[in-house]
Amino acid sequence: MSLAYTEVVFHVYHGGYWVKHYTGDLSYLDGHEMKSITCKLEEFFTVMSTEMSEELDGQKIWYKLPFEEAKQQKSLSNVDISFKNMCETGKWVGFLDVYLVNSIEHPHDMDVNDPFEEEIRVERNMASFVDEDPNFDYNDTPPNSNDEDRGEQFVRFRMGIQ
Q1: What is the pLDDT of residues 106-135, one digit of tens each?
Q2: Exposure string (b/e) for 97-112, b if CB count within 10 Å is 16 or more?
Q3: How many CA atoms, within 13 angstroms, populate the side-chain half-sphere of residue 105?
Q4: 151 or 42, higher pLDDT
Q5: What are phi and psi of 12, to 5 degrees?
Q6: 3-state SS, one letter per residue, for the chain
Q7: End-to-end Cα distance, the chain
Q8: How large a percentage of the chain has pLDDT more than 90?
Q9: Where is this region: Disordered (predicted)?
Q10: How far is the C-alpha of 81 from the C-alpha of 56, rounded, in Å?
Q11: In sequence order, what are the residues at sequence separation of 6 or more whose Cβ sits closer than 8 angstroms to the Cβ of residue 126?
């Protein structure tokens, strides 16, 4: 007699994203919606794509066992070995938690293009540097000068004077 489950219950959480806390713990935020899908392990992607077609656009799929912590979540794809691992584990446990995560980490947050502290420091340091030739004499020929302010005065030629 086999204790393996032929059908598995998937709790699919969607609409959220992973956040790592300063303590190192992970949380799934803004995942307000959960849908239960009961199907055979091999049919999971087919059933999920028919029942949740709109929610799958631009999502990455993660899974974990119900008794595992969030930091033990695993990435999932149809051709990956992780799908085979999920099927093997799911048939003995009977329940799996699946998370659909936005591919944009925080979709509702605004991008702030403030310069980094390092960029500000580099700009401040570079402002004092000017590409100058240490051997260039500005008194001899000032920059942007066509040498009109000094030099020889031309003598006019006057007829009849020798």
Answers
A1: 555 544 556 677 777 787 777 776 666 667
A2: bbbbbbeeeeeeeeee
A3: 6
A4: 42
A5: -100, 115
A6: CCCCCCCEEEEEEEEEEEEECCCCCEEEECCCEEEEEEECHHHHHHHHHHHCCCCCCCEEEEEECCCCCHHHCEEECCCCHHHHHHHHHHHHHCEEEEEEEECCCCCCCCCCCCCCHHHHHHHHHHHCCCCCCCCCCCCCCCCCCCCCCCCCCCCCCCCCCC
A7: 134
A8: 0
A9: 132-151
A10: 21
A11: none
Q: Is 13 exposed, middle or buried (0-12, 13-18, 19+ CB in 10 A)?
A: middle
- 60 phi/psi in degrees, rounded to 5: -100, 145
CATH fold for domain 8-102: Ubiquitin-like (UB roll) (3.10.20)
pLDDT value, residue 106 = 52
pLDDT single digits (tens) 9-18: 888 888 777 7
- Burial pattern 38-51, b for ≥16 Cβ within 10 A else e, equals ebebeebeeebeee
Q: Which amino acid is at 12?
A: V
